[in-house]
Specification:
The complex is a heterooctamer, with four copies of chain A (256 residues) and four copies of chain E (65 residues). Chain A has 256 residues and is of the alpha/beta class. Chain A contains nine helices and eight strands. Chain E is built from one helix and five strands, in the order ββαβββ. In chain E, β1 and β2 form a beta hairpin. The termini of chain E are far apart. The chains are: A alpha/beta (256), E mainly beta (65). Chains in contact: A-B, A-D, A-F, A-G, B-C, B-F, B-G, C-D, C-E, C-H, D-E, D-H. At the A-F interface, loops of A face β5 of F. β2 of chain C pairs antiparallel with β5 of chain E.
Amino acid sequence: MRTFYGTELANPLMLGTAGYPSPAILSEAFRASGAGVCTVSLRREAAGGAGQDFWALIRELGLPVLPNTAGCHTVKEAVTTAHMAREVFDTLWIKLEVIGHTDTLQPDVFALVEAARVLSEDGFQVFPYTTDDLIVGERLIAAGCEVLMPWGAPIGSGLGLNNEYALRAMRAEFPEVPLVVDAGVGVPSHAARAMELGYDAVLLNTAVAQAGDPVQMARAMALAVEAGRAAFEADPMEPRDMAEPSTPVIGKAFLS
Amino acid sequence: MRTFYGTELANPLMLGTAGYPSPAILSEAFRASGAGVCTVSLRREAAGGAGQDFWALIRELGLPVLPNTAGCHTVKEAVTTAHMAREVFDTLWIKLEVIGHTDTLQPDVFALVEAARVLSEDGFQVFPYTTDDLIVGERLIAAGCEVLMPWGAPIGSGLGLNNEYALRAMRAEFPEVPLVVDAGVGVPSHAARAMELGYDAVLLNTAVAQAGDPVQMARAMALAVEAGRAAFEADPMEPRDMAEPSTPVIGKAFLS
Amino acid sequence: MRTFYGTELANPLMLGTAGYPSPAILSEAFRASGAGVCTVSLRREAAGGAGQDFWALIRELGLPVLPNTAGCHTVKEAVTTAHMAREVFDTLWIKLEVIGHTDTLQPDVFALVEAARVLSEDGFQVFPYTTDDLIVGERLIAAGCEVLMPWGAPIGSGLGLNNEYALRAMRAEFPEVPLVVDAGVGVPSHAARAMELGYDAVLLNTAVAQAGDPVQMARAMALAVEAGRAAFEADPMEPRDMAEPSTPVIGKAFLS
Amino acid sequence: MRTFYGTELANPLMLGTAGYPSPAILSEAFRASGAGVCTVSLRREAAGGAGQDFWALIRELGLPVLPNTAGCHTVKEAVTTAHMAREVFDTLWIKLEVIGHTDTLQPDVFALVEAARVLSEDGFQVFPYTTDDLIVGERLIAAGCEVLMPWGAPIGSGLGLNNEYALRAMRAEFPEVPLVVDAGVGVPSHAARAMELGYDAVLLNTAVAQAGDPVQMARAMALAVEAGRAAFEADPMEPRDMAEPSTPVIGKAFLS
Amino acid sequence: MRITLNGEPRDVTAARLTDLLTELGYGEARVATAVNEEFVAVGNRPEVTLAEGDRLEIVAPMQGG
Amino acid sequence: MRITLNGEPRDVTAARLTDLLTELGYGEARVATAVNEEFVAVGNRPEVTLAEGDRLEIVAPMQGG
Amino acid sequence: MRITLNGEPRDVTAARLTDLLTELGYGEARVATAVNEEFVAVGNRPEVTLAEGDRLEIVAPMQGG
Amino acid sequence: MRITLNGEPRDVTAARLTDLLTELGYGEARVATAVNEEFVAVGNRPEVTLAEGDRLEIVAPMQGG
């Protein structure tokens, strides 16, 4: 199994910590999901602010923490945020987001590659939130990334895998690189599909946090990624354009 | 939870018994799947033939048995087969197939409704393999069926859900009737999707039996149907056409 | 080219006459569409009612008239309406609709086949509005229909071709029968696609009548069906999963 | 109507000149297509080689000529090729291709933007073959491009529009910029769809040249782009999830 | 007598369908008729007479899809 | 006499279906039977006798989807 | 002196960042700091002093996707 | 001298590009030229002379997509 900078995940699900109805539900959802990673961010803190309790909550999850640079629009912003995250969360991992467009929250692939280079040289282990562009993928790897995280659809849209063709091409192009579908997943069938394509994990947040029952949905997503991976390993049948009887035809009694 | 003629399934997966590499793998696949039902058929038996051992194998699964009328093309054939099945398998359940077309193995809805009527009047509990036609569904219910099993795609094709719109319409039309997607499922994401639509179970065979590793795929399907049902119960988010940040925007540090 | 009960259409487009902003726009839209057929209905008429002017308008179009039995839910209703239509419109053609379901306006295939039989025996030339069910198609042909008109999607939905697989199967199953996609078309690409599949015509109404500019949309639909037919006759390329340079690779100058 | 560097096209179709069965068929196909632009390339020429005759053939088409840099993989190669093209074809227009990947022939967006900058500064009017990435689009415009040509699918694949969502987003993002779907179109319904999305033209080659009857297919594509544009201008109906009778319900006779 | 004309109660005098249509002012209008849900062809109208409570449907060409 | 057993010609002696099944060696096997395309339930086998040319179908549990 | 703390004006006394954090009541809190958009690591805080108008950002763990 | 013409070795006499094109028989042909991967515009051909081992590319209009 491919590892993430040498770390094996307990479960090919990376789950976000934002937008849950309550801290209690967040914790329960994580337990239900068996997520292998939790993603977090940094925000301004007033004296005696909420950040300390949140951090305690996260530590209790006992999971690898993947801090993000959400909302950063420039290389400098992303790099500075990454440094602050490394210190606060005491990890080399960074989910690198350099947003290029406000409506789609798509990455600015130019700034992304540059920031990835700077951070990788500085010893960070970069998880780049990228598009399904193969050339961008190559550049990110050349910049030092050992993981690629193409989007399935815009963050928080729940649209699923907008371009399955491109995601398949990416899997074929980078057979050795751990690949994660990051963003766009709305229901378990989307997550299962990503894994059926041979992806190594799925990163999601809104689909769980905003579900009517986040705990139940967290469990559903955990089952789905496991199902998708198992199917990929089981070598599925090829789809056929014509029907084929499952029940044997020979030996059928003559009754009419 | 909707029941099937009063029976609650341990797991919303109905798994076929045909086309496995070996009886041992069949048994293992069933154990891995935790299937709630196994489907079987009747075929000509020579003295001391294989049927007796097969029956022993099936009994060991300890599952509700759903015999089919696979390969029948007329009402009479299907009805006679159903009677033989009731005697041999000692069950009132019958998966009613009346095939109308050789390439697609689609049901002959006219003969299907008639056979369903005859068998229901005769005390059978009919599981009709039907299309996604709402009116046919109504007729089957009027004929005595308490379950409907629309196809997702042709038997053995693995194409998935060819007409999700129609399957959704069927769920909306028959809120009280247990619905099963029967045939066409090729990978777990198909099965999960069917359950996300609110279906009560998925019936499949080829996707498991013909996978490179049937046991692994059986497990994958079990996880997928559970994931899909959990998602349906969890009230998923609505897809949005625009992105929406999962990480909060407010409180972001100013760093550029 | 396949004919409709011996009639060749000027253009493989059958256009409805309902819901236009004004009679003038209706006429202009028909002229712009070059439609080969216009569909009409019968409604209650007060003395000196609108029906007479409408009829004058339709006659001016100079097109074959295809009256429908829209809104009929029973065999008797449909048959009586067909007789009234034959007298009023002085044609043997009848677009047979026997509606089975209010939300989807899908045909009741049981009543449809029966009504088709009665009318065919009575000398009508039946254009049945049906589903994409192959067996129903066979029954309709056995009942005397020489044309089949499967739906693409529910009437007035504009969803397009909900089950392209089934429509392809229908074309393959009935190579000699004139087939028309009736209902569901929302934009020209839907109409073109139907013709690319080898269909002989497309019947639509709402997509034109309810467009912001019905005349322009009528023209668009005419172009689309012609495009789709031409493509079908031109034997299109097979889609490939990999790219293939259009510009020749050999002879490229060495410049780096 | 948006213009291409001030030039209005006779028809929103840009047609390639490669891979036709014969020069005669090429000419006939172009006449049938009424294409607004023809694309060409440069290749090594032996003394008295075929290039001169080809050029005579192209001149006879009397169309704006759009030379490409097909097969170039570096900025320098593309720029040098562009200069040679400007001299030979006596035009400022250049279809800028900088290929980044051999299997998908996808553009190298990094080299593309750089080459676009160099060429724009040098007075070229660049038609960049790009992806559906919005940020890359912004960069190309900043580099001086006044046209964007995102791919629909890999060159020569005929797969159509692999990511309609992204193409829609691009149209919304650049309301003033002429947009062309370049590559991937296999059948007219693909071309019509691109125009329905509000694109200003479609560029294709293989779908016509490799069709069984290129002339017929050329005509089909011309009709399709016109249909798609007309539909876009006509303001199409909104798709609905439920059916809606086209024939009025009121006034229906009571007959059962 | 009172009949039901296109779903509405209506007092009429003529009994023979042909006369009734004239009375109702349909004259030469292009219409089709049904009495008590049974189609009555133009040719049969002279023989058909209506009675109290009969249901008469008169339809004409109208827009349709 | 000669009957057709599961589609194949077969010479048999016993006429009564119960005896015939024994003769054919089905013993206690879990099978269902049809004679000339009509289902014969276990309970009715003793009353059913076969004649020259009859068609007997004997089926047992088998894999199915 | 007046600085900008997390985007808000704030009058403070201490100049050295370490002292300032204490003065502001962050104590042992798990936070990261940036002065005038430049990251200041924990280890460097003692050497860093702020001047009138400096911009100080103090961030802590928060939910993220 | 020996140069590389469109990727093939070729012995030629003329050194000046204009003369060379004539020697090679391109005459008035509509072609573009590059020497050692650098574009040489028509106007500059008279000033450009080739040396042993130089790489000359001569291209003309060709089909393209």
